[in-house]
Amino acid sequence: MSDDMWEAPLDDQLPAGDYIADVEAERILAAAVMARTDLVDDLAVQGFDPADITTDRYRWIWFAVEEIRASLQPGSIRWEAVERQLQAFRADGRMPTVPATKDELAQLYIEATPASASWAADRVTKKAIAARLVAHGHAAINLARSAAFDPDTDIAAAQLELDGVIRQGTDEETIQVGDVLEGVLTRAVTPPTADDRISTGFMDLDSLFTGGWAAGQMVVIGARPAMGKTTLGLGLARAAAVRNGIPTLFESLEMGRDEIGNSIVSAEARVALHHIKLGIVGDDTAAVQRLAKRGPAIQAAPLFINDNAFLTMPILRARVRHLVRTAGLRLVIVDYLQLMQAPKAENRQVAVSELSRQLKLLAKEFGITVVVLAQLNRGPEQRTDKKPMVSDLRESGSIEQDADIVILLHREDAYEKDSPRSGEADFIVGKHRGGPTATITAAFQGHYARFVDMAAT
């Protein structure tokens, strides 16, 4: 690229139609920040990113103002200070292009209209979004034409990249404490309802969690194999979707849809699970009647089941986005964490840490509750009482940190068949961010594939 190009008038520097940009708005911004350096902070608070300025000269003027604004002396000639900084950028190799001349900078300063800066920043941002969208479209086309195209992963990945087309602004993230006071006072005198809480299906758990799960929470339920974590997960799904009509997604990486259906019907209609599997429910008139009674509620429930054993975060994110938009999804249950496809990382612990963090961010971004079932290590077997602890979570550091609530499932009769507590289960709430911890005792009715309140037995 020759230096002659940089001697052209700024207005003619980038011919119209070469790319998606509003060069005039970029010129207004460069002039405005020279005249009022505080605009750098004001526009940043509104979410403006100077990287969206496509014209090199204008973008580097912005960077120069950022660099010198704190050291500017009263009465200093702005364009001269900017010109010196641009030359410094050029000299140390940071600026690969020829900077604007002192005369050009002086002309920009004369033209400055700081009152138009916000409008110009909005124009530049919109054009940048449009340009990223076009680039994303070209990348998607190339991806689809590739011989290695895999719809199971590439579509979800493309959707994730599409989310980055619009950068999140910062103007709504910082508020004054007084702005939250009205909401606090309202909640203080208004008991939670099904609109802002999701019942767990267990009275004592609901009481402990002030009505149930809350939006934005990540809940981890940990257990050793054969304790019944999938049964508990399905119970939570039934409580939300079948009993309360709350749209719920159950991601099963281990159990197939037929097994899930068997368990749901068994639990809801109180029909023995092994009778369903043997096909002899028709011999029990009472069971048939219960099935007929609960069948319509099960069929109408907004419970979505996916039993694909391959699940990545981009795939889950795409599915959640779709169901939030089309069905008003509020609860996601993943069975279970260690079976998810982890992102590439230096080791398994780092990979699971990233999964855990992304699941928490998923809950916050979409305003839903994410319940993640997780397998515990062999720690409980090494203790006399066999009771699990939060530290027994495999790769536990990040999981424990990201979770708002950690519940550990324990059944004594899983270790000792003749235990005096046979048929009982403990929900050990080992972590409860912002609330108390406790151990809740429930009844385990394995023949009905469910846990229930002790009072219901």
List the helices and strands and how they pair.
Layout: H1 23-35, H2 39-45, H3 56-68, H4 78-91, H5 102-111, H6 117-145, H7 151-163, H8 178-188, H9 203-208, E1 218-223, H10 229-244, E2 248-252, H11 257-269, H12 273-278, H13 285-300, E3 303-306, H14 313-327, E4 331-335, H15 348-366, E5 369-375, H16 396-402, E6 405-410, E7 424-432, E8 438-445, E9 450-453
Parallel strand pairs: 1-5, 1-6, 2-3, 2-4, 4-5
Antiparallel strand pairs: 6-7, 7-8, 8-9
Helix pairs in contact: 1-3, 1-5, 1-6, 3-4, 4-5, 6-7, 7-14, 10-11, 11-13, 14-15, 15-16
Features:
16 helices; 457 residues; DNAb Helicase, Chain A; 9 strands; Rossmann fold; nine-stranded mixed beta sheet; Replicative DNA helicase; P-loop_NTPase; hydrolase; 2 domains; alpha/beta
Describe the protein's architecture and organization:
The structure is a single chain. This protein is an alpha/beta fold. It contains 16 helices and nine strands. The chain folds into two domains: 3-127, DNAb Helicase, Chain A (Orthogonal Bundle), CATH 1.10.860.10; 194-456, P-loop containing nucleotide triphosphate hydrolases (Rossmann fold, 3-Layer(aba) Sandwich). It has helices spanning 23-35, 39-45, 56-68, 78-91, 102-111, 117-145, 151-163, 178-188, 203-208, 229-244, 257-269, 273-278, 285-300, 313-327, 348-366, 396-402, and strands at 218-223, 248-252, 303-306, 331-335, 369-375, 405-410, 424-432, 438-445, 450-453. Mean pLDDT is 84; it is low at 1-18.
